[in-house]
């Protein structure tokens, strides 16, 4: 089924051809006709299935008719990186349409966004927090909105954005077309869908299986030996670009620093970075300036780098869906890729779940020459903050003339009688406690 059968506006067709799109993916083939017919839609599909074009192309087609320089379509995404990726796709596919789209998210200056909104745009791709700021400050007009897209809804729930989403919905026209896309459908997202979708059609693409070009391997190791094993693994493996996943922001930052000290060109991508530094890390990884990128799951949303040779799970993901999503970053475009996962004894249940999803056991491997028997320190502080240095004790004051003789220094009040200076007043029962302490046991 070629794209021509969708009867897009000629300017949209030109953008599709320029982007090199030939045959629609399953999610596009199912969703595009429903969206163009005006239906609300619930799409169940993971990243990498082509869902961005599934909603971007109908939006561009629709907006070719009607007024310009008004916000008529709003796409809400959970992360800055995903917002940028969506906007890039919209601009690429809409390159011949003269429709304008912008991204709106925090971590960058608000004034350039305000200026672009004043000049007039038709499509806004936004993260919830900054969008609410614009709404509250009156710097965005959503009264002409015709179409709303909530992308990666399950991730927005995981990040705690659902209250913000509900606040945003109160400021949108009731008469609109709404599209909700999610890789999974937890009860909270199902409830949200019932609230905001009117007689929706559901489009579902089966869980995306890992590409056949990806080789999986598990590396069992004690928690305290993960970093040394990772270093050995990198030294003994012929790698191109390597994407490493960690569970926490702090661990991503620390591991990136350790890799740099070891001589690798590495960067970390995590939520505490400013937007400029996040973009620099992403651009450097895409261009090859950084061989290794260490990222958390949330920060990695929107990474689209086609030449990743290895994905390494420093920490095993919490769900099988996350595992499939992570390793889908390698083995693209018919290239071979490797997915390595460092696992501890505590990861047994998740390993079984992943193997069940894959339909086969994953090979266990060891690194030759690595000492797996090194004992853990009494307290594993590999990623802990260094202890605070003890506060310096105040120096004892030198005795001055007249002190101790009962004569106060100039300007000093005489000490009150009844207890030595510097001692705490007796609390009720203190005398009894002292008496008891002198009683032989």
From TrEMBL:
Keywords: ATP-binding, Helicase, Hydrolase, Nucleotide-binding. One of its GO terms (molecular function) is hydrolase activity. A motif (Q motif) lies at residues 1-29. SMART domains: DEXDc, HELICc. Residues 229-378 form the Helicase C-terminal domain. Residues 32-203 form the Helicase ATP-binding domain. InterPro entries: DEAD/DEAH_box_helicase_dom (IPR011545), DEAD/DEAH_RhlB (IPR044742), DEAD_box_RNA_helicase (IPR050079), Helicase_ATP-bd (IPR014001), Helicase_C-like (IPR001650), P-loop_NTPase (IPR027417), RNA_helicase_DEAD_Q_motif (IPR014014). Residues 1-29 form the DEAD-box RNA helicase Q domain. Its EC number is 3.6.4.13. Transmembrane segments: none annotated. Belongs to the DEAD box helicase family. This is ATP-dependent RNA helicase RhlE. It comes from Trichlorobacter ammonificans.
